[in-house]
Amino acid sequence: MSENETAPEPVEEELPQHRIENAKSGRAKCRTCRRKIDKDVLRLGVLLVGPFGTGYLWHHLNCAAKSLFNDVEEAYSAVAWDDGVEVPELAKLKELSEKAEATKKEKKVPPYAERAPTGRAKCKHCEGAMEKDSWRVVLGRSVEFGQQTRTSPINVHPACVAAEMLAEDCATEHEGFVDALTTQSALADEELAEVLAAIGELEA
Ligand SMILES: [Zn+2]
Ligand SMILES: [Zn+2]
Questions:
Q1: Measured in angstroms, how far is the CA atom of residue 121 from the centroid of ligand 2?
Q2: Class of residue 93 by CB neighbours under 10 A (exposed 0-12, middle 13-18, buried 19+)
Q3: Which of 30, 33, 116, 192 sits 20 to 30 Å CA-CA off 138?
Q4: What totals of helices (H) and strands (E) does the chain contain, helices first?
Q5: Does the CA dihedral 10-12-15-17 come out positive or negative?
Q6: What per-residue confidence (pLDDT) applies to 109?
Q7: Are residues 49 and 101 in the same domain?
């Protein structure tokens, strides 16, 4: 091969999609928890191919188990680490993943629909009673605490949703409402259809 005077062609190095390693330095930040990844701590890299270059986005391996378990599984099935790197058993990471899922389910985010667990709460829109086991929809309402505005969940009748969403302090967006309700409610298809029918048309 003769020497070429023009710039060399960039070498297209084939990087694997995942990499597990002990952090080489303490400089990278975990993309899940946003904290520093200390040197020598196990981390998972997920390859990002972007317009400005190709590289790994790093996560603590334990954080990845909680937020990106599919990637962890793929990394394990590809044995994406060098000889001598000691990785925990996949079952241990799966446990972390399941615990994180359970916590996420407890912290429900409006909007979602559920059956009223008691008959004691009133509809925050019309102040009317809500029967036990009847459908209620949980929306977000902006509440000011001193300088801060927070969103607190409020329960309303399905039939009061459209009117409540026109209120100025309603923190639930029209845009994507049905999708959000669908993914955030733990309901069967027929139940969801029932709730949506009771909500009716939303005014834009
Ligand atoms: Zn982390
Ligand atoms: Zn109502």
A1: 11
A2: buried
A3: 33
A4: 6, 6
A5: positive
A6: 86
A7: yes
Tens digit of each residue's pLDDT (9 = 90 or more) over 179-192: 999 988 888 889 99
Which residues have beta carbons under 5 A from ligand 2 (an ion)?
Answer: 123, 125-126, 128, 157, 160
Distance, CA 203 to ligand 2 centroid (Å)?
A: 17
φ and ψ at residue 76, rounded to 5 degrees: -70, -40
**Is pLDDT above 60 for 4?**
no
Distance 143 CA to ligand 2 centre (A): 19
**Least confident piece of the model among 76-80, 105-109, 122-126, 158-162:** 105-109
State residue 37 phi and psi, 5-degree precision: -100, 110
68 and 127 belong to one structural domain: no
pLDDT exceeds 80 at position 149: yes
Distance from the alpha carbon of residue 177 to the mean position of ligand 2, in angstroms: 18
- Using DSSP's 3-state secondary structure scheme, residue 9 falls into coil
| Crossing angle (nearest 10°) for helices 189-199 and 177-184 | 140
